[in-house]
Amino acid sequence: MSAEAADPGAPLRRRSRPRIDLRRLGRVALRGPVSRDRLPDAIGHVAEAHRAHHPDADLTILRRAYVLAESSHRGQMRKSGEPYITHPLAVTLILAELGAETTTLTASLLHDTVEDTEVTLDQVKEQFGDEVCYLVDGVTKLEKVDYGAAAEPETFRKMLVATGNDVRVMSIKLADRLHNMRTLGVMRPEKQARIAKVTRDVLIPLAERLGVQALKTELEDLVFAILHPEEYEHTRALIAAAAGPDAPLDTIADNVRGTLRDAGISGEVLIRPRHFVSVHRVRGKRGELRGTDFGRLLVLVTEDADCYAVLGELHTCFTPVISEFKDFIAAPKFNLYQSLHTAVVGPGGAVAEILIRTHRMHKVAEAGVVALGNPYAQDPAAAPQNEPSDERADPTRPGWLSRLLDWQESATDPDTFWTTLRADLAQDREITVFRTDGGTLGLPAGASCVDAAYAQYGDRAHTSIGARVNGRLATLSTVLSDGDTVQLLLAQDTASGPSPDWLDHARTPAARIAITGWLTDHPDEGKPTPSTMTSADPGGPGPAEPAAPERDALATAPARTRSGPRATGVVVDGPDAPVRLAGCCTPVPPDDLTGFVVRGGTVTVHRRECPAVAAMQEIGRAPVGARWADVEGRESDAGCRVTLVAESFGRPRLLADLTEAIATAEAAIVSATVEPPSEQRVRHTYTLQLPDAAGLPALMRAMREVAGVYDVSRAQHPAPAG
């Protein structure tokens, strides 16, 4: 950071500071420039607020920026009646109080000059440098003359792209919108409502994601007052009625101060009133408001360890509400927010919510990315660093912003971009999942493996066939949780593509746009094929109708019924009796065997590990010794019959590829059943005739190597009638 970058440990200026007097500033501004050795009176408030965060800041560039802005806007008036220069001054003061560095304040003073005056970007660049020029250009609107109805969405697209390279662009835009919302009352009601809705749908979520809570909360209240005036007035009346010297939180705050004093912990205990929207939400959640619902206690300490010390004392001396405890210090929110949240029961049963954080955390909680100062200034002597894989390592380019910039390139239509942007920003919670290579993926809450696949692989995710979540096989529809470890499985067949069903599980715009684009470009590929369709028997799901090659294989497969020891290649103890191999486990050499006498005196032979063996013994059936006959005693041409179960993820041509692998191993299909897909998983059961049992391991390996197949096993349940 540069020398003038924000000091994270500096105390945050109180938001109760009086707002500037716009009419007085207007009169001062009309006096015009002043001498070079004196700061213009009109930016005295800005200079004072800026020096509180940056005591050594050089204010010369601010003076020059003010002179250019004042002279360029001279004669222009706002709809509220003040000289126009009062607007960039107010925007700059908002940012100065949040701790923005000098470059941001300079660009803020000039942010409307290129859009509304004769000043050009080249002039800004020549007088103030590339950084200021980039910031001013980033917040400059596109002309409706050139873009028509698409001007607003394309302006936001341009602004977001600029924010991807320099997050300070959005800081200026948020402060600009806040001051415009403060003075929106002079506009027609319909225009107020339109601006308020865009603020609600786009700017407030962006302020939340950038962690600028001081701007976000005030914007929420201003939007609330415009769009829901009756609820706003009712909430205002409730807050006014709850104010007073005997508020319940005052008593609990005094008790907390005493507890920390007795424990020798140095901390500041403040009462933070909830803003209007917060009170309205609590009322909607709980119905009847409690006296402590109108605010929360804030405990500010010096060190991170002190936060946990305070928590321990509070949970020892008060009754904690365990369900309200959250640790955002060990696991910060994706928008930089860090704090401990808890709630305790005070005198008389009153429940108070308490926030515990350091002064540095409080500054970041209020100002978000603005508190970073100039995050792009680097020490020239410092060694270059590789790009971090963890998105939290670079808060100036968080994962959600990278994803937004990625998908917006595919949303070429302004309406699609505008609609998708609002939907994306409406997802106000984010999770982090870990890749098996050590990297991380930031995803919106509710995202599935489909979203993770496109976030990690882009268009290569079209060939996804499944995933492993925390080491266990999972379908692409599996919803991920914060902290999960995910490994995406891709098919080797690069020609395969997504199923239309994937759209039901995709939450991220990037995934939805990519899937929709592929399906549009391949209209016939997304339709079910004979190899993936199940029968539509009115009586219920049945086995799949095999494609032509499989039907031929079934027609030519031998279906001999064998009996007797020589027919099966098995010798059983006791009198000569018919012997048959159990269809539930289809034993083959060299499996260990056991048998049971069933109706008609036939001995049914099972593999020893077959579940049916335990079931027979539980009902009192006595086992019969069984073993494979000597090689000389076996029929050389009898071969062996086995039932295999293949577990796979659904994809086109899967059945055809499996039967091809079976045919290549010179096995004949006696019967085949494909169960209807369940959560994109498909279960195939094949009864096969092999020329030699020695070929079974190779056959099972060949089937496992088919793309999409994740397991092949011997049947452990009654085989379907063939």
What's the count of strands?
20
Kindly estimate the percentage of residues that lie in beta strands according to DSSP.
Answer: 15-25%
What are the low-pLDDT stretches, counting only 5+ consecutive residues below 50?
1-20, 25-37, 379-395, 526-567, 631-637, 718-722
* 3D shape: elongated
Largest sheet: 6 strands, mixed
Task: Please tally the helical runs, counting DSSP H or I stretches of 4 or more residues.
Answer: 27
- Which structural class best describes the helix and strand composition? alpha+beta
Distance between the termini: 74 Å
Mean pLDDT, to the nearest integer, reads: 78
* Portion of residues within helices: 40-55%
Question: What is the CA-atom radius of gyration, in angstroms?
Answer: 36 Å
Explain this structure:
The protein has 722 residues and is α+β, with helices and mostly antiparallel strands. It has 27 helices and 20 strands. The strands form four sheets. Strands 1, 2, 3, 4, 5 and 6 form a six-stranded mixed sheet that branches. Helix 11 (168-182) packs parallel to helix 13 (213-227).
Describe this protein with a few key phrases.
27 helices, alpha+beta, five-stranded mixed β-sheet, disordered C terminus, 722 residues, 15% strand, elongated
What's a concise summary of this model?
The protein contains 27 helices and 20 strands. It has 722 residues and is an alpha+beta fold.
List the helices and strands and how they pair.
Layout: H1 22-29, H2 44-53, H3 60-73, H4 86-98, H5 102-109, H6 113-116, H7 121-128, H8 130-139, H9 144-147, H10 151-165, H11 168-182, H12 189-209, H13 213-227, H14 229-242, H15 248-263, E1 268-273, H16 276-286, E2 295-301, H17 304-317, E3 319-320, E4 326-327, E5 340-345, E6 351-358, H18 359-367, H19 399-410, H20 414-425, E7 430-435, E8 440-444, H21 449-457, E9 464-469, E10 472-474, E11 485-490, H22 509-521, H23 548-556, H24 565-568, E12 570-572, E13 579-581, E14 593-597, E15 603-607, H25 611-618, E16 624-628, E17 640-649, H26 654-664, E18 668-674, E19 681-690, H27 696-704, E20 709-714
Helix pairs in contact: 2-4, 3-5, 4-5, 4-11, 5-8, 7-8, 8-10, 8-11, 10-19, 11-12, 11-13, 12-13, 13-14, 14-16, 15-17, 19-22
